[in-house]
Amino acid sequence: MSHYRPISERIKDYKPVELRLSDEEIKKELKRCQDCGIPFCHALGCPLGNVIPEINQDALNGRWDTALARLLETSPFPEFTARVCPALCEGSCVQALDGEPVPTRLAEYEVIERGFARGWIKAIKPKKKLNLDLGIIGSGPAGLTVAQTLIRAGAQVTVYEKDQKPGGFLRYGIPDFKLEKSIIDRRLDLMAQEGVIFLTGLEAGTDISVRLLKKRHDLLVMALGSRQKRDLPIPGRSLQGVHFATDYLSAQNRLVGGELSALPPELNAQGRKVVVIGGGDTGSDCVGTAWRQGASEVTQLEILPKPPEKRALDNPWPQWPRILRTTSSHQEGGQRRWAVTTHEFLPNKNNPNQLGALRCQEVNWIAEPNRPLSPVPVPGTEFSLQADLVLLAMGFVSPEFGNLSSPEAFKPDPQGRLSERLYAAGDAVTGPSLVVRAMDSALKLSAVILSDHGGKLAQNQPAQGQSLSGQASQVSTQHLVA
Prior knowledge:
The protein is of the alpha/beta class. It is globular. Helix content is 32%, strand content 19%. The strands form six sheets. A five-stranded parallel β-sheet has the order 5-4-3-6-18, sandwiched between helices. The protein has helices spanning 7-10, 23-33, 41-45, 52-60, 64-74, 78-84, 88-91, 104-117, 141-152, 169-172, 181-194, 210-216, 245-256, 281-293, 328-331, 427-430, 435-452, and strands at residues 3-4, 18-19, 133-137, 156-161, 197-200, 219-222, 228-229, 242-244, 273-277, 297-302, 335-338, 340-348, 351-366, 374-377, 383-386, 389-392, 396-398, 422-424, 456-458, 479-481. It is built from 17 helices and 20 strands. The longest helix has 18 residues, at 435-452.
C-alpha cells in the first residue's frame, strides 16, 4: 500500500521516500480494518499490544484525539515505529487471509503526526516525585523508552551516550530517507522539557567509571543494544575496501546531520562497484545509500535461499509471512542474488592492498538428522564478482561492553535484573531484534524497576470518546506513577 516519491527524484537526496496516504485512501483502509471477525493483530502481531481495531475505529470516526490516546497507552514512540517498524501486526491481519493486510503502520503514522500537528503532544510532568535517581547507559530505543517512562513516574533520569547526539541506532544506523533525524530531535526536546538529562560524547566505563556511576545514581540501566557486528573472517578480509555496513551508514548519517563535513573516502561509493553481503534491512539500507552516493553498480548477496512470493504451506496465517520483500531501495536498482556464500576477498591486480573482487559459490541448504539446515556449496558454481567496496551487513551477535562489563558477567534474569542496583533492557537482554521489541523490553523493565523500588504501574487511558482537546498534557504513553 506504500507510495514512494519517483526514483529519479529521491535518489538525489536523503529526504523521506515514503508518501502519506490521501484522506480517501486512509479512510478506505480504516474501513477495511472494521470488517474483521476476531483480530489477531494486537495480541499475536504487535509486541506492544496496541489495540489496533479500536484505534482505527476512532480514527475512522474522526476521533483522532481518542485514537491518539489509545495508541499512546501502549506505544512510547509511535513516530518511530510508524516509519521503521516491519509491522508484525500486518502479518497477522485477518484481511491478509485472502488479500492485502490493512496498512496499520501507515494508519499509525496518521494518528501520531496529526497529534503533533494539532499540538496534542506536549511534555508531561509527573504529579509526584519519586525518590529514585536513575542512570541509563545508551540512548537507543530501549534507553529512551526507559528514560521517558521513569521520568514521567517522578524519578530523576540521566542518559549517557558515547556518540555526539542521542538516538543510538535510530540516529546512526537508519538512513534519513527512512527516518529523518528531526523526528528524533522533536521527541528529545520533549524529553528534555520533562527533565531527562542527556550527557553525550561520554562513554560510560571509559570517560566515567562504573564506580562513579554507581555512586552518582541509585540504579543503572544498561541499554547498550546489540552492536557487536558479525564479521566474515575469510582470506582477504584485511584488504582495503571491506567495511562493516553500520560504519558505512553511520558515516553518511553523520554527514547529513552535520557531524562530518565530508565522507571518509573509503566509505564513499561514488563511481564504485559495491557488493552488500547480507539480505536484511541493513543491507537494503546500504543499497539505497550507495545509489545516492553515486555507485556505478550495486549487488546484494544473501546466503539464505530466495523466499517465495507467497506463503509456503509450512508458514500459514497468522504467522509472520516469510516471503520475498522488495524495499524502496531495491526498487532503485541493482542485482540481488540468493543462496550465495563468499569464500575469499581478492586483491586488485594493480594494488595488492586494495579489494578487487570476491570469490563466491552457490549453496544448497541441506537438512541432516537431528541438525538444523546448513549451507552446502554446489560443485561447479563458483564465480567471481568485481567489487571496489564490500559492506558486511550480516547482523549483530552481542552487546559491545567496552569497560562496562564482560560477557561472562552480563547475565540478566528474564526481567532484566543484573543485581539489586543494576538492570538491562532491549537488545542487550533479548539479543539483536527490532526497534519495537526493544521498546517492549524497556517498558516491561520500567515496571520491574518501579515494583522493586516502591512504585506502581498505572495507565492514563481516557474513556472511549473522551476528548483530548484543551487537555493535551493528559496524553501520555503507558507510564508509571509513584
